[in-house]
Amino acid sequence: MDIWQAHRADLDSLAARGRRRQLILRRGRDFSSNDYLGMSGAPRLARAVEAAIARGVPMGSGGSRLLRGNDPEHEALEAEAARFFGCESTLFLSSGYAANVALLATLPQRGDLVVYDALIHASMHEGLALTRADKAMAAHNNVQSFADAITAWRTAGGRGRAWLAFESLYSMDGDRAPLADLAALAERHEAVMLIDEAHATGVFGPDGRGLAAALDGRADTVVLRTCGKALGCEGALICGPSVVRDFLVNRARPFIFSTAPSPLMAAAVREALRMLVDEPERRTGLMALAAHAEAVLAPLGATVTGTQIMPLILGDEARTMGVAAQLQEAGFDVRGIRPPTVPTGSSRLRISLTQNVILEDIDALAAALAKALA
Known about the structure:
alpha/beta; seven-stranded mixed beta sheet; 12 strands
């Protein structure tokens, strides 16, 4: 008897549809990572970790934050991050995925309503699967759709709090949320915004504080800022009112029952925040690369977004993966994205601009892409 028969059959089904995933080592010029500012390999971050080791900071935390795992480095990072982002408090978790699950599963209460953008990240959906609140999906970046969902819920007798869940910059489309309009909507309905700034943190806003920087400090705003993308580190910071931090510490299972992040990583994130202030050329350089990429890739079909993310939507899954394979063989790390990550019929190349490439790399990619599309 093969006790794994069902699992093997599922994998075979994925393979038959061309959707079986496998892990591959990174190779080629970087047009796929989220290391937007090229900070993951920065010597300054390495020196910060070396200095932390020299002063006795341990590799592991040894337990959850509520047991013995709460290290002075965690506390120092959270205090410094709160000052940097201009909010009352922050809470450091092991990943953006865990943080989004914690937010959506914990903060909205029974009798509340969460209205979420149709294109939110899988981690937000995971949290929504655990929430006790009602849920309604809004059309992507459509403020009226958010408003209609709240109105319909109130008309049907909804009496709790409304919550708006969305990303400030969407990782597969490269487009931005209408933040000012959503903030005005939240104010009108006394709603709370849960904003995922994963792909905007470090890249946009004053000193890289993100697209939602102007909303920090508001009582109706909770912002998730990941540390494993533009900051070049690992983990995530939940930024918001102090009552949110206290409530998550007491009620959020992904925080309570997880071993705390490495204290060394907390030290690295502190240094990364300082680098955002000290090295603004990383952001300006990235935007120059993005502008050049738009000029040479838009004629080939890539979407101009004004951000570091440029999708080239091909639609057909097989063609998308075939073009991606040709680019990888030519030495460019470009990945094909297909359902269920993106909607059916919208398979695409997700071209990510980072400070790990130069202008000549972008020109070479354009030439290889033109050949692959021919």
